[in-house]
Predict the structure.
Amino acid sequence: MARVRRRISVLGSTGSIGVNTLDVIAQHPDRFEVYALAANSSVDAMLAQCIAFAPRYAVMMDEAAATLLRQRLPVDSDTEVKHGESSLAAVVTAPEVDMVMAAIVGAAGLPSTLAAALAGKTLLLANKESLVMGGHLLMQAVRQSGARLLPIDSEHNAIFQCLPADDQETPVHKGVSKVLLTASGGPFRGWSYAQMTQATPDQACAHPNWSMGRKISVDSATMMNKGLEFIEACWIFKLKPERVEIVVHPQSIIHSMVQYLDGSVLAQMGNPDMRTAIAYGLGWPERLASGVGPLDLVATSRLDFEAPDESRFPCLRLARESVAVGGTAMAVCNAANEVAVAAFLDKKICFTDIAVMIERTLERMNIVEVTTLAVVEEADAEARECTLGVLADLQRLTNASKRV
Ligand code: NAD
Ligand code: MG
């Protein structure tokens, strides 16, 4: 009997996670049908994906990009091109859709991720920023609609795999004492703080083990990525912050671990390739081939571990403090980070100013309880404005010091 193919909408399809997702899907044409692809503005990449996967819809955030894509699609194409937020929401919530890969980068992914959760879809969550900003709302939506949340971030995917299969909702009740979140330490693991003040965007984006988009690469270099993942782990696995420990493991072979009260520690290992976590999410509860080669432990030869250094990587402390404060503090931390990372990539600030900008924003902003999406969106918008103010102050200081 022919298998019923699962219909999926891939959001952020032209990015690093999106491309890897389509790579795994292409290996299993009998299992998946691409219902929709969505991206911001990359017409060339989207055109190639539309030709290869023949989705029912292609959504571009940018209207001009959508017009161009429409013009360039072959005349016999069955793909309908749409644009804007409401079209994105429509391809997420359509009754035909079984699964949504949420792989838009940054806060821009929050409305669509939340819409998928509210609509009760199987939600493959790569967009960690949406959980950091609106964790309370997103987890509530998952619970109320009966959506299935499958973490795609490799660490959370690893933890998910190491938790008791029959209860991932309340792991502490099943003898879990701690989650050990591994971190590669990023490209500047061995650098002094003074060296990091001179780091360039290209150096920050040259991750030793993983190939990723530029924003998350900079997050890995500041270790804010681990800070965001710390918050993500607390939300997904309903853990108190003291039950999540960060361990630096430079080889990125162990993707994270779960420690049980009897002394057992379960680890999920593999080559650092996101297709493993993506295939796990796509196939769950079955296992699918992903195209990732087998792990060669003899060639790997050693696995090292060290404690994180919050004095050189203050973003870790800022993320922890945001969780402790709660409410909109995490959305503020995330928004400030997005603005600061963009400023660093634009060469407006030095690398170590990223943490300075986040800290000053957190000090200046008023933190409130998260009750609705509007509250989160308002905190996000206000924090961005505040961080731009901090940026202007920093730039004034730099210019003044250049004049003396
Ligand atoms: P990327 O920059 O490579 O791709 C981002 C994608 O989002 C692109 O397709 C882009 O067109 C789309 N996009 C951006 N703004 C949009 C908007 N407003 N509306 C619609 N689409 C928009 O990023 P990435 O590295 O693939 O990361 C995507 C997400 O996955 C991030 O949240 C990141 O933290 C998370 N993640 C990535 C990795 C990785 O290995 N790359 C690992 C774990 C988690
Ligand atoms: Mg990760």
In short: The radius of gyration is 21 Å. The mean pLDDT is 96. The pocket of magnesium ion (ligand 2) is lined by residues 153-155, 229 (CB under 6 Å).
